[in-house]
Design a protein that fits this description.
Strand content: 15-25%
Distance between the termini: 22 Å
Helix content: 25-40%
Strand order of the largest sheet: 3-2-1-4-5
Largest sheet: 5 strands, mixed
Shape: globular
Radius of gyration: 18 Å
Low-confidence stretches: 22-27, 69-77
Order of helices and strands: HHHEEEHEHEH
Mean pLDDT: 78
Length: 204
């Protein structure tokens, strides 16, 4: 209803979108999200980037970007890994270190945007590991997994579920999960509900 935070956010998204569109017809999603979030922050409203995406989708607002042709060497094909959804939205665990979920989110600081990588245990919601960095990189994700391995015992059959971010499809991530005997699991494309517990945690 008018006056609610959701209604205000939707109105601001409409206004900000129109302002962005007037400046350029080639809008990439990260640029739009930054514009929207900066606008929210100036008015004392802080909102997770994925919440912005959901609101934009609800309002049928989508970024406009040029399609790029993909050129990939054959030698690079084996560095891309996609995993089946082993978790299948079964978010209940009967013991610790049985099912982990992970993701990376934007964090606004006084020094600018940063990235928070987190691993959560589905048994009790315990944060197994977290790392903060200035770049959304493979190193950030790998260091988070290394920290989790140091903090907790990796049990047989441990599942680690993520989205299809480039860090999680990398050869380095594949190699580390194999080294730790962890079973990678991956959400379906553009389906945030497959990783709902992590999404909910990062939205709080």
């Amino acid at each position: 209803m008018p006056g609610s935070s959701v209604w205000i956010s939707q109105i601001q998204i409409r206004i900000k979108w129109n302002l962005c569109k007037k400046r350029t017809e080639n809008l990439a999603a990260p640029m739009v999200i930054d514009e929207l979030r900066c606008g929210f922050a100036k008015k004392g409203i802080f909102i997770n980037h994925k919440a912005v995406l959901r609101l934009m989708d609800k309002l049928n607002i989508h970024s406009v970007a040029r399609k790029r042709k993909m050129h990939m060497r054959l030698t690079q094909l084996d560095t891309y890994h996609r995993y089946r959804n082993v978790l299948k939205r079964d978010f209940k665990a009967t013991q610790p270190n049985q099912k982990w979920v992970t993701d990376v989110t934007y964090v606004r600081t006084q020094q600018g945007w940063g990235y928070l990588s987190t691993i959560q245990d589905l048994f009790d919601g315990f944060i197994v590991a977290h790392q903060f960095g200035r770049q959304n990189s493979r190193t950030l994700v790998l260091n988070t997994l290394k920290q989790a391995k140091q903090n907790e015992k990796v049990t047989a059959g441990l599942i680690l579920h993520s989205d299809q971010g480039h860090q999680y499809t990398s050869q380095a991530y594949f190699a580390l999960t194999q080294e730790y005997a962890i079973t990678p699991s991956m959400s379906r494309r553009a389906n945030c509900w497959d990783n709902a517990p992590m999404e909910n945690f990062l939205d709080t």
